[in-house]
Design a protein that fits this description.
With 138 residues, the chain is α+β, with helices and mostly antiparallel strands. It has helices at residues 21-31, 56-69, 78-81, 84-93; strands at 2-11, 16-19, 33-42, 47-52, 96-102, 105-106, 113-118, 124-136. It has a single domain, classed as Jelly Rolls (Sandwich).
């Protein structure tokens, strides 16, 4: 059995982080899937999906470290549309995560949260696909 949900996320700035964990939990619960997997996929080359703790100081550290790795400067792609930094950061983190479902629950660790990260430099409307593959509850 496969269940899909498409969600829209509005972002307003570069390096904006949105916690999708409760939305993902709710979709799994409503799906009645007992065992399977859920994939959370961003359809954009300048927005990532990852698992991290949603804690203010860790988020600051995370932003700082990603900014060190892909620092603000002029890249070749910037001649086209000015957002090379966003593409590079996204490709390092990836656009999807897959999480096991057991007994109709996502199997995240204690501090894991599903986070959507906007890296582009301007306001955007984003599309994220949630897809569950699994067995229905009996």
């Amino acid at each position: 059995m496969i269940k899909n949900k498409i969600i829209t996320i509005n972002t307003n700035k570069e390096f904006e982080i949105k916690n999708l964990t409760e939305l993902v939990r709710e979709f799994v619960k409503e799906s009645n899937v007992s065992d399977g997997i859920i994939t959370i996929f961003s359809r954009h080359t300048t927005a990532a999906v990852t698992l991290i703790e949603d804690e203010e100081n860790l988020i600051k550290d995370y932003k700082s470290k990603i900014s060190e790795i892909v620092e603000p400067r002029i890249y070749n792609h910037d001649k086209l549309d000015g957002n090379a930094r966003a593409h590079l950061r996204t490709s390092l983190l990836g656009q999807s995560v897959t999480i096991p479902i057991i007994n109709n629950k996502i199997m995240l660790g204690t501090w894991q949260n599903v986070m959507f990260i906007e890296f582009d430099i301007k306001k955007r409307t984003r599309t994220v696909i949630l897809q569950i593959v699994g067995d229905l509850s009996k």
